[in-house]
Amino acid sequence: MAENKYVIGLDYGTDSARALIVNAMTGESIATSVKYYPRWKKGLYCNPKTNQWRQHPKDYLEVLVASVTEALGQCSPEVAKNVVGIAFDTTGSTPAFTDETGTPLAMLPEFAENPNAMFVLWKDHTAIKEAAEINEKCKANDVDYSQYEGGIYSAEWFWAKAMHVLREDPEVLAKAYSIVEYCEWLPAVLTGVTSAKDIVRSRCAEGHKAMWHESWGGLPPEEFLVSLDPKLAGFRERLFEKTETAEKPVGKLCKEWAEKLGLSEDVIVAGGAFDCHMGAVGAGVAPNTLVRVIGTSTCDVMVSSYEEVGDKLIKGICGQVDGSVIPGMIGLEAGQSSFGDVFAMFRRVLEFPLRQVLPKSSLAQKLSEHEMEALIEEAADKIIVELTEEAEKIPIGESSMVATDWINGRRTPDANQLLEGTIAGFTLGTQAPQIYRALVEATAYGTKAIVDRFISEGCRIDQVIGIGGIALKSPFVMQTMSDVLNLPIKVCNTDQACALGAAMFAATAAGVYEKVEDAIEAMNSGFSKTYYPSEENHKAYMPIYEKYLKLGAFTEKEIFTAE
Known about the structure:
Blueprint: E1 6-12, E2 16-23, E3 29-36, H1 38-41, E4 54-55, H2 57-73, H3 77-81, E5 83-90, E6 95-98, E7 119-120, H4 128-140, H5 158-168, H6 170-175, E8 178-181, H7 182-190, H8 203-209, H9 222-228, H10 235-238, E9 249-252, H11 255-261, E10 268-270, E11 273-274, H12 275-283, E12 289-294, E13 298-304, H13 306-309, E14 320-322, E15 330-334, H14 340-357, H15 369-392, E16 402-403, E17 423-424, H16 432-456, E18 463-467, H17 469-473, H18 475-485, E19 489-492, H19 497-509, H20 516-523, E20 527-531, H21 535-559
Parallel strand pairs: 1-5, 5-10, 5-11, 12-18, 18-19
Antiparallel strand pairs: 1-2, 2-3, 4-7, 6-8, 9-10, 12-13, 13-15, 14-15, 16-17, 19-20
């Protein structure tokens, strides 16, 4: 009987990181550990009022050790001995400036508390001005370097963030040698890379977010980057020309990190990619299937053959990149800047009297501090549950309320991070469940706008796969989405699809499988449920969807326009 081989998939999300140990032969999950980023949890280095979201690289390294060692601690010693591969997925675009060694500047003592020296998280929107400048230059240039990224460059992406930080911080400008994406840095750390020029660059990250494309020799040329801002001079030469797909080995674990993690130095480290792209692989992505990674935001991923895409340039999405999802196919990305965040925002609004008024009541004085906190938490936890029960009872179209889903800007179709959410149709009879239902419908309408764009650009979509906690735990949200789209939605059987996808890449890089598709076939988790659309409900939603589009157009053109 062949000896089992194991791989570790590491999924680095916005709030926490997950280590998943998987039997590479069967796809069986052996152990898992989730660790929250300690500095991020305290809200350090962030300013929500200015949309500044920064993460310290030490958070990433500390949870790496903690999650992997805890997960291995749940297994027999034989598992650690037979781990053959490890792979990362991360959020993105999440870049940071480095020195010549490839070390993020925040790891240096003089920059240890400087947010500009840290990783600029995907949802940081401080670079809206810079994104607008990039779009203006791209459209005026003979070659539009944003054409394979939907034709609209976002404030959430690589060059806009780099420009903003360099303009804002002369100390970072003076020290910065290169720039690295989060998903590239972690494999470099584990393999002992000591030069920025030796970091293996991610096809996924750079193709979707940094305007990298083979047709113009990699990154945009130096003269174009300098035209964006002279402060970018020299970076292109110090960055890279080649990128690699994530199934290719970056190297083996260096001695230092093999000892820290309790693994062999023979363990293969795969290339990095974004969480949603590896999540799509973990969910079993295939042509004509839209995979929705549904969390605080959404990322929508598809794959298409070279023949189907051909010379088409799909407008207003987050890119079309050769090999960014599955090598040998074109990866297509879209998404919503907020999804779960929409519901979290509304919950916070409703929690206000619980947290600010209730503790000050005379009755509260009879409770201990611990009892008071327990009461508040219990009530807060039931808010969405109760709202859902009441919202489901409201017939479609009975309420006059309609909302947009842009509370954190719009990612796709047609990125515009200046936008804010709007809601219309209040009456004297409006109650919380009506508002909540309007917000749920808004997230579904935002999804339909994305699907409609893919279809109008010639991409066929036969079904949707949903992954993530909302897909598994929110039947009302998922059924609403299915009805609005008029498409079936399969829910992935695991809430660890991103980590499982990373494990599949690790298994491929380690040689357990010849190609990623083979790993998908052998290691997939299957589906827990399928939501089927109601034709009657779909017809009832369409007039409201038209109102959503009209409200959105008014919001964008009349209220939140660039000055």
